[in-house]
Amino acid sequence: MTQQSIATSDKLDAAVLKVAGVVVLGAIMSILDVTVVSVAIPTFQNEFDASYARVAWTMTAYTLALATVIPLSGWAADRFGTKRLYMVALALFTIGSGLCATADTIGELIGYRVLQGLGGGMLMPLGMTIMTRAAGPHRIGRLMAVLGIPMLLGPIGGPILGGWLIDTASWHWIFLINLPIGVIALIYAQMALPKDAPEPSESFDFVGMLMLSPGLALFLYGVSSLPEAGTFAAAKVWGPMLVGAALVVAFVLYSFKPRHPLLDLRLFSNRNLTIASVTLFVFIIAFMGAGLLFPSYFLQVRGETTLTAGLLMAPQGIGAMMTMPIAGMLADRVPIGRTVPFALALIVAGFFSFTQVDPQTSYWLLGGSLFVMGLGMGGTMMPIMTSALRTLQAHDVARGSTLVNILQQIGGSIGAAVMSVILTNELNGSRPIPGLVDPSGEPVTEAGLAIAAQQRPELLQQTPVDPSLIERGLDFAANSFATTFWVAFALVLATFIPAALLPRRRQPAQPLDDQQGELVKAPVVIH
Questions:
Q1: How many whole angstroms separate alpha carbon 506 and alpha carbon 521?
Q2: Which of 219, 220, 349, 509 could disulfide-pair with 244, CB 3.0 to 4.6 Å?
Q3: In this structure, what is the dihedral angle of CA atoms 300, 302, 306, 312, given to the nearest 10 degrees?
Q4: What secondary structure, in 3-state letters, does 393-425 show?
Q5: Buried b or exposed e, range 269-287, using 16+ CB within 10 angstroms
Q6: What does DSSP say about strands 443-445 and 432-437: parallel, antiparallel, or unpaired?
Q7: Hey, what's the torsion of the CAs at 236, 241, 244, 248, to 10 degrees?
């Protein structure tokens, strides 16, 4: 069956599903790695004797690499071929995983995570380009319904698998597990993906790349240094942010001059794309930033094992699994302005419980809240992306999806940094314990000792203290998490403002290029 006939048929036939298997395998591998690392952060703190802010760089370094490589993936796919580039991305990710398992210091681990991110940053946009070329742009909603369930195995299985590997083996295995999966994915891609037929691509915007990629990396580096520095006044925060922002502003001014800029900011003249981008940007700052702290609450305040923390996070993925297929089908039929506000309301309803957490909050309540939030998530992000990109001309979709994806990565980094700063500053307000200092000479606080004791009970045998002090410290730590969740809750509420402007009338799709009749390139899935 030819690519054109596959694209124009209504049914997702065997040829499309065969290609989908490759994309799903790569997506699960990259998404799994993000969620696995999220539950391993306390373990890294203990293993490498590092602060939370320092260890959080294992997540941030991955995001920085993603943001740097995403602008290049569209041009590189045209220049070198999607199959060839996809296999290179798989190889980079797999090699990076193996190197992460060999890290002896937190600095080495962070560096190897950059290599992983360079591969992972290309896996999602390339995979979706391959899929949409096979299935056709008019079936994007249906395609998301098919791919949504297996892709959610990462968020559901990642924390559980990571917790189990850490508890039964060691943290090294959360990276080693990617090696066999990566080898299988490479073999599968070689067999299943159609042979490349690279065509002459648009001229590459080297000037834009020299401004945008370093600008994004420096800006996000400055933002991500905020939790460790604790203040914007630190040179390592404002210095990179200022230089990065200057480079990004220079790129914005420059990008309207070339015929084929690295990022086509002219696309923001499309109202739907702009509103969707703003909605997702605000939402991701709030939800993705706070989402990284959910497992930390279970681990640090409740003293659960990493496996138990992973199991406690599973209801969120299960809820999203239930609504994502429905939302994918509805996105082809119902304007998202009529559905997304209801999904956001579910997220708000579930989120509220986390603003009330204490050291004894019912797990049934929190599990139910995560499930409700998952239901809302499944009906929020994919429909917004699908609707926004459908209204673009076919030759603009790849560039539009790149714009939105970069905004998502920036929003995720800002959200993680802001929430980490708020939590760190709240915890630092805990009362110091007289005469007790840590190895660096800093005074140990009640909350700090209580959290450490939850993870390593033997500390209380080495440092006997009044049990009421530990109880008071846990109360303070729980209140610190609750305050941080209140900020995120307010930002989720703010998402209703741009969401109210989402289209409430059905928008016609743009299945074919209006001049060349070429197949549309794919939207980029939220990573």
A1: 22
A2: 219
A3: -130
A4: CHHHHHHHHHHHHHHHHHHHHHHHHHHHHHHHH
A5: ebebbbbbbbbbbbbbbbb
A6: antiparallel
A7: 170
Here the tokens at position 83 are 């199959």
* Calpha distance 69→77 (Å, rounded): 12
Beta bridge partners of 519: 512
Q: For residue range 237-248, list pLDDT tens digits in order.
A: 888 889 988 998
Beta bridge partners of 445: 432
Please give the angle made by the CA atoms of 96, 102 and 107, to the nearest 5 degrees: 80
Q: Where are the domains of the chain?
A: 1-193, 206-261, 270-431+470-502, 432-469
Phi-psi region of 500 (alpha: psi -120 to 50; beta: other; left: phi over 0): alpha
- Give which of 200, 165, 188, 218 is closest to 43, Cα–Cα: 165
**Residue in 298, 319, 446, 456 with CA at minimum distance from that of residue 379:** 319
In 3D space, the residue among 402, 378, 400 whose CA is nearest the CA of residue 388 turns out to be: 400
In sequence order, which residues have a C-beta less than 8 Å from that of residue 293 and are 6 or more positions away? 419, 423, 481, 484, 485
Q: What is the mean pLDDT of the chain?
A: 77
Task: Tell me the CATH number of domain 1-193, given options 3.20.20.210, 3.30.70.260, 1.20.1250.20, 1.20.1080.10.
Answer: 1.20.1250.20
> Which of 64, 62, 27 is CA-nearest to residue 41?
62
Q: For residues 440 and 458, what is the distance between their CA atoms, to the nearest angstrom?
A: 20
Question: What is the maximal distance between C-alpha atoms in the chain?
Answer: 76
**Average pLDDT of span 447-465:** 72
* Mean pLDDT of the region 9-33: 72
The letter for the amino acid at 70 is I
Q: How far apart are CA 199 and CA 378, in angstroms?
A: 37
Question: Taking the alpha carbons of 124, 76, 212, 255 in that order, is the dihedral positive or negative?
Answer: negative
Q: Pick from 96-100, 189-193, 442-446 the range whose average pLDDT is largest.
A: 96-100
User: Does residue 221 contact residue 232 with C-beta atoms inside 8 Å?
Assistant: no
